[in-house]
Design a protein that fits this description.
alpha/beta; 11% strand; seven-stranded mixed sheet; homodimer
Chain lengths: 283, 283
């Protein structure tokens, strides 16, 4: 997915939000915004938004000197999610269709996002999402492909959401390789977050080699690209992975909540809608 | 009032909104945003927001080649407001305190704004504002000063709001000089807008000499500054005039709706609150 003009004010908003978490020094924060401003002419609209996000959060890191401003927020999200974990398991156990419920839970966890939509109340939002039906719903194709597959490549999104992912992984009954980011960016999950969420007990955890809030294949490790090219089922969580992979003709199932108006428009859904979309199928 | 960090993403949002009204050419709009980005380092936080607004809307004008992108919207606002005019007069006639009601009407008109808060439904919002009591309310001082004054300097804000101003001017029962902007900027009123609103029948209309969406004294004409320095009652409508004059120790009464979170915070009120504040009095 390309960058839309509406993304540009949003980059500044995100940079401001992240910088304020990193520092109280107004001059430094202004410097972050200045630098991003000066970089604008070099950011073509053909870039995917996470390509620019990578640059934006890199500037925040460089100017504030804080490598991982969201670390505390990530730990807090994981703690909150772990508290919910038993009730999420109960939900799956009580449901008619365990897999379908687990997918909805995994998508519900996608509300944990300090980039596109930082004001959320986890428990409340989870309840809302669980009551929603996906507007694009390729669940049948997903189940069919899952039955035929030997191995699943699972592209993670945010820390905390990882706990919700675990609930889904536990229902897939197939070996899973769980892929996190290589370096801190927004509240995207790193290896340590996956481990804190207990993912290492149910899947192999690797990094994509990429430090963007998405999966930019040209910036990923050879190891990851090998997995990606040979996978016969890929689960892609969240907007950032969708934004960077939406043009790939691979058996990818995008599971996300359309949190920003631009992604919603791109998918042809409304902001707030949830989506389970096959990359090989029209909406 | 200074520029806050939150103003910066908002400048880009406003530039995007204005550019889209001026042109469909995405490359041109991107160029507007690029140029504003490159100007960011030269915009100190000590500037008042309208000083930057002046630069931002200047870039929109220069890059798109459209001198007054909001002209049609302004005409539409005036038309809508003129339709409401008879019912506004009826409201004043039916009220216990004509002056107080006319002030509330004038503040209600301040909702017409394509800069800070472009999504409004005029009639609905007017109703809402008329039911609200000002959170800062220096009405008593205003009435006292009005009784003692010979002449009122009235600083206009937006086209369409001008019709609501006319209702207030008709209740002031004193000579009024009504001041509009010198050049098109956002939907701020120009001489032609004042005339279309019938202000010329109830007041002298002049321009401030300033092309910013506010009143930057250093950029105003000598004629206006003379009026300003000698006035013993100044009515200042809207955020832009407040943002540029809030440090002046003059008998100014600010009448506005706090439409953006930054102005609201500066005034110590909530977003959406209405304010009638004397510049010589603490809140």
């Amino acid at each position: 997915m390309r960058t839309y003009l509406d993304c540009i004010p949003c980059f500044f908003k995100q940079a401001l939000f992240a910088s304020r978490i990193a520092t109280d020094d107004e001059e430094k924060i202004k410097e972050v915004l200045n630098r991003i401003g000066m970089l604008l002419p070099d950011i073509p609209l053909t870039n995917s938004p996470p390509e620019t996000g990578r640059v934006v959060y890199g500037v925040v890191r460089e100017v504030t000197g804080i490598d991982d401003p969201f670390r505390d927020l990530k730990n807090e999200s994981i703690k909150k999610a772990l508290k919910l974990y038993p009730s999420l398991k109960t939900m799956v156990n009580a449901s008619d269709d365990r897999l379908e419920t687990a997918i909805k839970i995994a998508v519900a966890g996608n509300i944990i996002d300090f980039g596109a939509s930082p004001n959320f109340e986890l428990e409340k939002e989870v309840e809302v999402v669980l009551k929603k039906e996906p507007v694009i719903n390729h669940f049948r194709s997903f189940r069919e492909r899952l039955n035929r597959t030997e191995h699943i490549l699972y592209l993670a999104d945010n820390a905390g959401e990882t706990v919700f992912d675990r609930v889904l992984i536990e229902e897939l009954s197939k070996p899973v390789t769980y892929v996190v980011r290589e370096r801190p960016v927004i509240n995207d999950a790193l290896i340590e977050d996956a481990v804190k969420s207990g993912i290492d007990k149910v899947a192999d955890v690797i990094t994509s080699g990429c430090d963007a809030p998405g999966t930019i294949l040209e910036r990923c490790s050879k190891e990851f690209c090998n997995y990606f090219e040979n996978a016969d089922l890929i689960i892609s969580k969240g907007q950032g992975n969708y934004e960077t992979l939406s043009n790939e003709k691979r058996p990818i199932f995008y599971m996300l909540r359309a949190k920003c108006p631009v992604v919603a428009r791109n998918l042809g859904v409304k902001q707030g809608d949830i989506v389970l979309k096959s990359g090989l199928q029209a909406a």
